[in-house]
Amino acid sequence: MPAEYLCTEAELYPVPKRLLDSSLSPTPHINSIEQYKKLYDESIKSPTEFWGKIARETLFWTTPFQTVLSGGFEYGDIAWFLEGQLNATYNCVDRHAIKNPDKVAIIYEADEPGQDRKITYGELLRDVCRLANALKAHGVRKGDIVTIYMPMIPEAIIAFLACARLGALHSVVFAGFSAESLRDRIQDASSKFVITADEGFRGGKTINIKNIVDDALKECSTVERVFVFRRTGSKVSFIIPRDVWWHEEIQKYRSYCPPEIVNAEDPLFLLYTSGSTGKPKGVLHTTAGYLLCAATTLKYVFDYHEGDIFGCMADIGWITGHTYAVYGPLACGGTSVLFESTLLYPTPNRYWEIVAKHKITHFYTAPTAIRLLHRFGREYIDCHDLSSLRIIASVGEPIDPESWKWYNEVVGRNVCSVIDTYWQTETGSTIISPLPCAILTKPGSATLPFFGIDLAVLDSITGKEIATTEAEGVLVIRQPWPSIARTIYNDHNRYFNTYLKPYKGYYFTGDSVIRDRDGYYWIRGRVDDVINVSGHRISTAEIESALYAHPTVAETAVIGVSDELTGQSVHAFVTLKPNCSTDAKELTLQIRKVIGPFATPKKIYIVSDLPKTRSGKIMRRILRKIISNETDQLGDLSTLSDPNLINILVDKVNSS
Ligand code: WT7
User: Which keywords label this protein (predicted)?
Assistant: First the structure.
């Protein structure tokens, strides 16, 4: 992020008066900076009292816990709420269905406008139970890993919860991933069960989901059963006895299934994410800690109140969808909007039509979407009644101040709180964010840490904590919080080496940060080889290995370059093997096939050679400078094996 974003003199935006007026808005949970500071200090000084109390108040425990926290960063043996037992779906569904069966749990806004559907807590409980019974009849048991590859339909949420009902882990794979990516994730998890659909609709287009699953399963010998939900009704291939129809199976079973009571530390799910190497990692979250933070951040970060309509636009295949479209809202007994379509379908009015139609109070999206809507112009927005909105939020990458201000003015109409939430798949829930009615905002800053998040900034070279308020370095966390990921599936060493070993005694976020003189945090971006395209996390190594799998590719270097619309974009340099030829189009297809369309590079340059040190290491720094047109700042070139190459590469980049 350019340094000019970071303007510590940035205007402070006050809390909109409407949010503090009890005749217009619900009374905020936290309504002053003093109240925030007091609770924050308590949460850091006495984390066990703090989280113990909230855990007892927020979750329903079948067996109460005795020990709040054990273990820590030193040995990577973090465990919360030992002895406690619970079931996630009892917390997310039963207890609300018992009290208020007719309350709407899910508002499903289908791809085609006008086909929306509401699902009450009573219905949700019955649907979850029936599917859970069907899964159980086919052998799903506590601890099994069920891979879910589904479109954005309520049945996807039902599938999450049916697994959790049985104590089975779900591993949701975003439906934009290719067959090969799906295959790798199923194989890594040795998943025996897959839940999918015949097809999906998105933006008016049909997606052949079942075909992709069939392709993936050609090399997944562990899979015994595939549950197929009928979404479109088109004819799809069906392999008996492996495949079974969801609608046929559930007819056989009663609509109550006793919840499997699990220990607090039993896993709830895996979610694969990209790291610095080519192999995706299965981030593992446990039941009580994850659920607790999903609910607690929903309450405080989003100032959630009974009756609110929560509109998280993220796909449920990513952590944002897990935490803020599914578990957070349902754990709080709230109403969550599940949006199947895209912001442009059928027109760029779509988001605002659904805000007005469903009276959405909380709208949560990514900076890339905000920038796209900004480009389309405010006339699509001005004509809609957005008066239901109270909190508008952003996640996934740093939001530039201009987009922040536009969001505040045009979408929020200067009467909503703008909440920039910083977090990661591994943190499980938001860790830095304003609290809507307590923390003044600065456009571009995620502001201050959430309760229990003990931040520090380390000097990236010495690894020492920077004690002054103003600081620049890498962002780390000093103490565990309940929703921190516990391990990487089947690779605890990788977990330890990635997060806990780089700076002993701390959790390493992988992000660099600036803390300004008011103590506000400004996330600057990743310090590893992870890039962020439209809020999607992609590892350069993963794209490189997809390219290496192409028979013509000799060598490649993939880099992230800042991009006005998508935050960063992928640029790939490739050299070919002798006597081989191919073109950028073919290599693009290769990446789409191996990873998925969202990883498509913006540019692929086929070149004669890559800049290397004398020991043969590719100098990505130079490639970055060439693309950003900063060839006057190439720095030390003394180690470069062939200095003439620079001019050739510059010409190549300029002419493509
Ligand atoms: C990485 C995590 C958490 C849900 C979406 C992404 C970047 C995320 C922000 C923000 C600046 C952000 C970081 C982080 N990031 N939110 N508000 N401001 N950067 O989850 O795929 O696990 O990616 O996204 O670089 O490390 P993820």
Answer: ATP-binding, Ligase, Nucleotide-binding
Estimate the crossing angle of helix 179-189 against helix 209-217, to 10 degrees.
50
Q: How many CA atoms lie within 13 A of 644 on its CB side?
A: 1
Nearest Cα neighbor of 166 from 126, 132, 123 is: 132
Give the E-state strand segments of 133-242 in sequence order.
Answer: 145-149, 169-172, 193-197, 200-202, 205-207, 225-229
Each residue's pLDDT tens digit, 585-635 = 999 999 999 999 989 999 999 999 999 877 778 888 889 999 988 888 887
275 φ/ψ sector (left φ>0, alpha ψ -120 to 50, else beta): beta
Q: What is the CA radius of gyration of the chain?
A: 24
- φ, ψ for residue 80 (rounded to 5)? -115, 145
Per-residue buried b or exposed e for 442-476, using 16+ beta carbons within 10 Å of the residue's own CB? bbbbbbbbbbbbbbbbbeeeeeeebeeeebbbbbb
Q: Whose CA is nearest to atom 19 of ligand 1?
A: 397
Q: What is the pLDDT of residue 620?
A: 87
- 584 Cα–ligand 1 center, Å: 30
Whether residue 10 has pLDDT greater than 90: no
By percentage, how much of the chain surpasses pLDDT 70?
99
pTM for the whole thing? 0.93
What the block records as the tokens of 343 is 């912001």
532 CB under 6 A from ligand 1? yes
Cβ density class 412-426: b for 16+ within 10 Å, e for less: beebbbbbbbbbbbb
Amino acid at 531: I
In the predicted model, what is the mean pLDDT of the chain? 95
- 398 in ligand 1 pocket by Cβ < 6 Å? yes
Residue 621: φ, ψ to 5°? -55, -40
Q: Domains of the chain by range and CATH? A: 3-513 (3.40.50.12780), 534-655 (3.30.300.30)
To the nearest 10 degrees (0 to 180), the angle between helices 47-58 and 287-300 is 90
- Which residue of 421, 422, 476, 499 sits with most ligand 1 atoms within 8 Å of its CB, as the best mutation to test the pocket? 422
Q: What is the pLDDT of residue 3?
A: 44
Position 2 confidence tier, pLDDT thresholds 50, 70, 90: very low
Q: Whose CA is nearest to atom 8 of ligand 1?
A: 396
Q: Is the ipTM of this complex over 0.95?
A: yes
Burial class (CB in 10 A: 0-12, 13-18, 19+), 161: buried
CA distance linking residue 291 with residue 308, whole number of Å = 19
Query: Which pLDDT value is given to residue 557?
Result: 93
Say yes or no: CB of residue 329 within 6 Å of ligand 1: no
* Confidence bin at 4 (pLDDT 50/70/90): very low
Question: How far, in Å, from the CA of 166 to the mean position of ligand 1?
Answer: 31
- Among 213-227, 305-319, 558-572, the minimum mean pLDDT is found in 558-572
**If you measure from the C-alpha of residue 430 to the centroid of ligand 1, how many angstroms do you get, rounded to a whole number?**
10
Nearest Cα neighbor of 486 from 299, 650, 268, 318 is 268
- Pick from 344, 330, 322, 566: nearest CA to 423: 322
Among candidate residues 555, 603, 499, 637, the one with its CA nearest the CA of residue 74: 499
pLDDT band at 238 (very low <50, low <70, confident <90, very high): very high
> Could you say which DSSP state residue 612 is in?
B
Q: Look at strands 536-539 and 507-515 and give their pairing.
A: unpaired
Per-residue pLDDT reduced to its tens digit, 206-235:
999 999 999 999 999 999 999 999 999 999
Contact of 386 with 407, CB cutoff 8 Å: no
Mean pLDDT, residues 361-381 taken together: 95
